[in-house]
Design a protein that fits this description.
single chain, 275 residues, alpha/beta, 2 domains, six-stranded parallel β-sheet, two-stranded antiparallel ribbon
Length: 275
Amino acid sequence: MSGPPVDMRQQASTAPAVAPSADVDALLGLIPTRRLYGIPILAATMDEVMAVCAAAVSGRRKLILGVVNAGKIVNMRRQALLRASVMSADLVLADGMAVVWASKLLRRPLPERVAGIDVFEELLALAHREKLRVYFLGAKQDVLDELLRRVQQRFSELTLAGSRNGYFDDAEADSIADEINASRPDLLFLGMPTPKKEIFLASQGPRIQARVCHGVGGSFDVLAGKVRRAPAIFQKLCLEWFYRFLQEPRRMWRRYLVTNTLFVLMTVRELFRRT
């Protein structure tokens, strides 16, 4: 579904400037982790996440980001490979408001939602300011082409290290990782669905030389203007899933009915375990 152009005008990051000597481990040591549904989720604000990412780039330290929302948490219970892949990330962030609300109910509060698409845009702004090299992997070729056009227009100081669409077989993963390394990127973004992006990062992440690797799912489509992102009020009320349902009701109703019900049941079970 086409939508109005997404405003990708570079935004001054709210994250504080990070000195080249900043240490990733030292910064992470200042941020607590909450274990929810057996997953260690970083209780970080966007500012803190961006400070850690900036330190990883300046300190040439590998950092693989993972994100979870209600649907992914449910699927992690049923898909061992997805769970192992997410758990292998260097840090896991709460991408969905449902996870933040559940954390407060379970008395393991997360300070805020750190949406994967927002981290994506903040990292693009960082790449613009610091003139970093960026590689984009994912989406259909026409979506990728439009994304690259918009990114280069709005974040003109970053360097496009390379790109590739997301349609490839598992057997090609090694050669794609080699291609990424040959381009010498500072940042790698994967615009692929779950669990493909998580499995790719878990298997190829250790050998990929980008400093920050971030799986952004359908964010390529949003920033390319092909899909509308839910308005802020839907995001705040934890109703992004409902907004997407309104866009594709026939395809999404069964998925959301089952997933949301299971997530509520999982949360109730977690609550009773603590009482």
